[in-house]
Amino acid sequence: MNGGPRGGGGPLVAWSTIMVALGLMLAIWSAGDASALLFLVGPAALVPLAVFSRLRPAPGGPRLLARVSVPVVVTALGVALAAVGLTGGLWLVLIGAEVGVFGLVWLAIEIVSERRRLGR
Amino acid sequence: MAGGAPVSRLAATDHKKTAAKVGIASLCFFLLSGLLALTMRAELAQPGLQFVSDHTYDELFTMHGSGMIYLFLTPAALGLGLYLVPLQVGASQVAAPRLALFGFWLYLLGGLTMYSGFLTDNGAGDDSWTATIPLSNSSGTPGVGMDLWVIGVALAVFGSLLIAITILLTVLRLRAPGMTMLRLPVFSWTMLVTTFMVVASFPVLVVAMALLLAERHLGGVFTGSTGSIVYQHLFWFYGHPVVYVMFFPFVGAVAETVATFSRKRFFGYRALVVSLLFFTALSMAVWGHHMFITGAVKNQYYSLTSTLLAVPAGIEYLDLIGTMIGGALVFRAPMLFALGFIVQFLIGGLTGIIVASPPLDYHVNGTYFIVAHFHYTLFAGSLFGLLAGVHYWFPKATGAMLRERLAKASFWVLAAGANLTFFPMFFLGYDGMPRRVADYEPRLGDLNLLSSIGAGVIAIGVLMVLANLAVSLRRRVPAGNDPWGAQTLEWWTSSPPPADNFTTLPRIDSYAPLLDLREREEEAAEPAVEVPA
Amino acid sequence: MSGSTRSDFASVWSLYLWIGIGVAVLVFGAVGFAVVRYRERPGRAPSRRAELNLLEGTVAALILAIVALLVFRTFSTEAKEDDSSAVGAVRIDVDAFQWGWKFTYPGEGVTVVGDSDHEPDFAVPAGRTVSFALTSSDVIHAMWIPGQRFKKDAIPGRTNRFDLEFGTRGREQGLCSEFCGLRHSNMRFGVWILSQASYERWLAAHR
């Protein structure tokens, strides 16, 4: 078989359908309580994903992946520092944001050079 | 993990290494949160306050519950899937390995942030794992420790969400040739539906925490007569599915274990698939049962959905028992833990049906009856399922066998401890002991003492499991590819698997390819067909 | 509302408990049977049967029938318990706060207040419907009277109304059962269930 599996989205769509039905049931039973809208969060993510997976299956074949990715860890550290900074230390938010941006840029470089090596 | 510079170990992208990190981190949080529980049980062993103050006790039960749910059992469930799903579907790597690594680090940093609250003036978060408004706002629970709790929870839950997404993508896009969705192994099916619940609910919790932080620092978010109810909707919309995230992967582990040690393929596969889809969707629709006594939700709807859970749950039990019936049962340690799960989880599940009835919930909500109910499902149930999975897959992940007699002994000690600790709590709750209290009426002292003794027995059981892990890694007994005679693809490759998981794959005709292979070989002298990965 | 929550609770509890015990016995029995009968034995190969959809459907239908029974009993009992429209009932406003209770009898001019240092007691007449209006001044509390098998949240900004009918005379313990901060474990109260005459005397004494 060339390429990765097609579809696989069936269960995602089936599950989303049950969710919408349960949400409708609550909406009717509770005379329109807004909490019924929460049922849409899952389908909103899963249905597009199922469609995407059907239209563009994975290319299949070997993938070239870095064994180690330090920028990912750096970015995570930046995000965490920025989040902790929300307790009231704007300086920490800024440091975290800088670390995070640095990490993202590094990550972008890492991924681009990976793609180049795959193309070679 | 293979040796290497520390930096490369911290930043390795291989899903097996990320999953191992998740496992180690979650184990550490389990032990930490468990120590808090032992402290609580020491305090509760007798009426009166002996060891801790009211305020400290509030921190203890908050961090115990938060640690166990956000930092131990949820990540452990997802970590198990991160390790196994690529192997079970015949993939060489998880989809988006960097995203999984990123998720791990957010989870770990989130957990450290939560626990760092203990180092602050006012102490760690102390408004329970649910942080109900208005108590959790800045006047109800002042101090930076609570802020750190809120931020830590958001980070840990977001990190878990990212890991779940990679598992979902792996099932969608990286299945080996021949592995259709209806040939996914049972464990991978339980992981798949788990990721549905995670994607549908974890973002809502992250939003709830962001709003809570805004409420604490800016005010005016959860206002008016509906503010506290809005918070509860946002929280419990996550807070119920998360307990199923902490259930389905482990029932999947139990299913694989039972099938292997019954020497039969899993019974009722298609009925199971249908029931998993309904079970997990339904579990998204029951959260209002945590709000029965608020008078602010449509109790009837939630009572109906909550009670309906018995139907798919019953199908799962039927399938587990149906797998054993007609089989050739072998009682190795993983099978003992699996049987323990089946028996003990049922008690938690049936008491769950009881509290799905509002008139009954009106008496036992907020009491030790509920504490007993969820410890039966999560500890006597899910944790035993996790231990079944750990004992089952440890040889695969490490290449070494666990000590069988020590494992069986630790099972019996943990089973005794679990029941001794949690069964008395049903009576305590029914008889008038509310939860989240450091002290209680003297007449409830005997049952509390019994429960505290049980906690000590659990501690011994946990030490036995830790000892087994340590000894088995130091003095290794080689496992080989397939020490159990198992059925699914992860057992085809070496123990531990190579970096790219497989060098060859067998033919995939069903959800039990290795069993098919053995049955074909029994019937004829037909060699396996080798397909390049 | 006729009868008391205590007896309503007891009959529903009994139904659920015995069905639960029955299911547990059945499942434990099935597991026990499998574990004994199907131990690995030399010369006995495992069955290859992997599916029996008729069985699945039958079991699902049976469980659904039990669910229907339970839900039906639950709905009818709950309708009784949630109804709060009794005429001629004794009315008591309850205000929960950190960490005590205030009981007001509107129209009687009686108020009883107490906190975690001094537990408040209020009185009700036996055999008559008592209509409560429950709210909170600060955070969410819950008013629980275990003897009545009933509790309700006290939520700031909302009033929760419910009726109770107290049977046996004597004192019943009440407590807060929703975590509300530091002195949550000490937030208790008492209910004196009195004859009509004693109740009138109690009211007079507390005006």
Q: What is the N-to-C succession of helices and strands of chain C?
A: HHEEEEEEEEEEH
Strand content of chain A: under 5%
Which outline of chain C best applies? elongated
Helices and strands of chain C: which structural class? alpha+beta
Our count of helices of chain A gives 4
Which two chains touch over the largest interface?
Answer: B-C, 82 and 77 residues
Strand-pairing-aware structural class of chain A: mainly alpha
Compute the number of strand runs of chain C: 10
Task: Note down, in words, how this protein is organized.
The complex is a heterotrimer of chains A (120), B (533) and C (207). Chain A is mainly α. Chain A is built from 4 helices and no strands. Chain A has helices at residues 10-29, 41-55, 70-85, 90-119. The two termini of chain A are 24 Å apart. In chain A, 32% of the residues are buried. Chain B has 533 residues and is an all-alpha fold. Chain B has a single domain (11-532), classed as Up-down Bundle (Cytochrome C Oxidase, Chain A), CATH 1.20.210.10. In chain B, 66% of the residues lie in helices and 1% in strands. Chain B contains 18 helices and 2 strands. A two-stranded antiparallel sheet of chain B has the order 1-2. In chain B, α5 packs antiparallel against α6 (186-217) and α9 (248-262) crosses α13 (333-355). Chain B starts with 5 loop residues before the first helix and ends with a strand. By secondary structure, chain C is an alpha+beta fold. In chain C, 36% of the residues lie in helices and 30% in strands. In chain C, the strands form 2 sheets. A 5-stranded mixed beta sheet of chain C has the order 3-2-1-5-8. In chain C, α1 packs antiparallel against α2. Chain C is elongated. The two termini of chain C are 29 Å apart. Chains in contact: A-B, B-C.
In short:
The complex is a heterotrimer of chains A (120), B (533) and C (207). Chain A has two domains: 10-55; 70-119, no CATH class.
Write the layout of secondary structure elements.
The complex is a heterotrimer of chains A (120), B (533) and C (207).
Chain A: H1 10-29, H2 41-55, H3 70-85, H4 90-119
Helix pairs in contact in A: 1-2, 3-4
Chain B: H1 6-10, H2 15-44, H3 54-88, H4 97-116, H5 144-173, H6 186-217, H7 227-239, H8 241-245, H9 248-262, H10 269-283, H11 299-308, H12 310-324, H13 333-355, H14 358-364, H15 368-398, H16 404-430, H17 445-474, E1 504-505, H18 513-523, E2 531-532
Antiparallel strand pairs in B: 1-2
Helix pairs in contact in B: 2-3, 2-4, 2-17, 3-4, 3-5, 3-15, 4-5, 5-6, 6-7, 6-9, 6-10, 9-13, 9-15, 10-12, 13-15, 13-16, 15-16, 16-17
Chain C: H1 5-37, H2 53-82, E1 90-97, E2 100-105, E3 110-115, E4 121-125, E5 129-136, E6 141-145, E7 150-154, E8 160-165, E9 170-176, E10 188-194, H3 196-206
Helix pairs in contact in C: 1-2
